[in-house]
């Protein structure tokens, strides 16, 4: 997708947001549902991947969409042939958390259904895309999204997930020892917080091998150079991101809340937290790039294993929009990260 078409799409999305957001800060969910584009789960393989929706918590409306690739060994890139042959036959698990500012979108939104289908096919992994209570923010504020996403991880731990697989997939092909947390935008923020909580909780037999953050949604009270300098770019604006944080954070909290400013003065020290390896995707046309870079630098200083890929022409969440060749490169880097863990 070229930059001019992304700008047009961005304007359409801003118009969609304006129709849904009332002046008092609440969301008109009727417009949200009417204008949003959802696709149903499809048990028949499409592009080599079948999907099924499963309820995790009926009362809280927490559910997941499973993306299940055909059982066949994918052709590995020669650069990543270090993986053990036996490991290549098993499905690693990717827990995916969608973006939308904690307010909009869901696993059945066409953009995330398409992205997760592609993620499952290219990585030959079972992708579990989580529907958390974001579509009811600001009605459900912090920490509802974090609680729901961790509950989905516990659901996988309980063994219920393997019972939902089609008969053609042997549950023994699911590698519980290779779980990856992945999130786009607000979902990247969630992936970090779920990883921290998982490090403090017994989740055996699950083993989280890595965290993959795609344009993660972090912030703070101060205005960074990128927030001031980068203007008129597709998909996001400082004003709209501020509104998302106000909707999600507790009443009276500012953007230096630990949910937002990970290494701010109010946030806990992560030096002694046993985090897995972290992959961070950053775009040079993303107004959040300074916060994302600061997050990576702070993790490095805390002694964590961090790999950063910077895409000069990447907009916020560029992986969803197939932005020319860089999206292909992003998937290549994700595959390499998974293969090396």
Automatic annotation (TrEMBL):
- Which ranges of the sequence are coiled-coil? none
Molecular function GO labels? hydrolase activity
Q: Which Pfam families match?
A: Abhydrolase_3
Where on the tree of life does the source sit, at the highest rank?
A: Eukaryota
Read off the InterPro entries from this record.
AB_hydrolase_3 (IPR013094), AB_hydrolase_fold (IPR029058), Carboxylest/Gibb_receptor (IPR050466)
The Alpha/beta hydrolase fold-3 domain covers 94-318
Check the record and name the PANTHER family matching this protein: ALPHA_BETA HYDROLASE FOLD-3 DOMAIN-CONTAINING PROTEIN, ARYLACETAMIDE DEACETYLASE
What name does the UniProt record give this protein? Alpha/beta hydrolase fold-3 domain-containing protein
- Annotated organism of origin: Physcomitrium patens (Spreading-leaved earth moss)
